[in-house]
Specification:
globular, 10 helices, alpha+beta
């Protein structure tokens, strides 16, 4: 499976996005569990120490450190006992100088049912990637992850359908603990389990590059604009328009920072065919022109 570029990118000048490597999983199931290793990769064409994007979850439980890891413009420093949770679509880069020791879990979107996704907060992008469990939480996480690992490796005692079902249950137990830790680590914890919001969030993730209209999302989801406003505000404290704009700005920043795409093509990739309109939008939300933002990073 080859990596793919973001919308608007081509060949080698976009951020490469790599899919979940099902062919590397034991039994072809939708998760992988194993030790972190220097040679670990998602795909032969994916050098981990270059900026890239993945479309699956990665959870790293460290047994040593410190390790510096970049996720969406922030360098996080993890040490023994810390957990780093990278979600689908986030841009990240492994350290060129640090050695990674611990356990890595990767999970394909769709492996767990929606009810479990909601309960575990799998797509709460507002939560910090780096988590610091206390000793009791760490012991519980280690035990739960070790159980997932044992079930993952055991392909002989159950037929594949039951093996996969057991994996889902054991993975859910681990992620419920991890999700609770993540939610309690947020500066201002919010409940984001409302289905209206989660459907909107998923629709924005799929459509932000071409659709910036709150009314269009409301119509597509079958909600009134007022219902959508209430749900999004309750979940995030933002308006739906603010939520959409924030996602567009993040993607624009990713492309400006990590690709050589011309500014006009960056704008087109996030839904602004006119470069001047994109520049005005970006300046309104960041206080910088796209060119100035790119120059600051240089």
């Amino acid at each position: 499976m080859a990596g793919r570029t973001v919308q608007g990118g081509d060949g080698g000048d976009g951020i490469r996005t790599f899919p979940f490597p099902v062919d590397l999983s034991v039994g072809g199931v939708g998760i992988q569990v194993g030790p972190m290793a220097a040679e670990r990769t998602w795909h032969p064409e994916a050098p981990l120490r270059r900026v890239h994007r993945i479309d699956f979850h990665v959870v790293l439980l460290f047994t040593d450190g410190p390790v510096r890891h970049m996720v969406d413009f922030t360098e996080y420093e993890a040490t023994a006992g810390d957990v780093l949770w990278i979600r689908p679509g986030q841009v990240h880069r492994y350290s060129r100088t640090c050695e990674y020791h611990g356990t890595a879990l990767t999970m394909q979107p769709g492996f767990l049912p929606r009810a479990t996704v909601e309960a575990t907060g799998l797509y709460r992008y507002d939560l910090p990637p780096l988590l610091h469990p206390d000793p009791a939480q760490l012991d519980a996480l280690r035990a739960a992850l070790a159980h997932v690992g044992r079930e993952y490796e055991d392909t002989r005692t159950l037929p594949l359908s039951l093996h996969t079902a057991v994996l889902r249950h054991s993975l859910t137990a681990f992620l419920l603990r991890l999700g609770h830790l993540a939610a309690s680590s947020a500066p201002t914890p919010r409940q984001q389990t409302d289905t209206t919001f989660t459907l909107f969030r998923d629709a924005v993730e799929q459509g932000f590059a071409t659709n910036h209209s709150v009314s269009a999302y409301a119509d597509a989801l079958g909600y009134s604009r007022r219902t959508l406003v209430r749900a999004v505000r309750a979940a995030t404290g933002q308006t739906p328009k603010g939520f959409i704009d924030k996602r567009v700005v993040l993607e624009a920043k990713r492309l400006l920072a990590h690709t050589d795409l011309p500014i006009g093509r960056v704008g087109a990739a996030v839904g602004f065919p006119d470069a001047a309109n994109f520049s005005k939008f970006f300046h309104l939300h960041t206080g910088l022109t796209p060119a100035a933002f790119r120059a600051e990073l240089g």
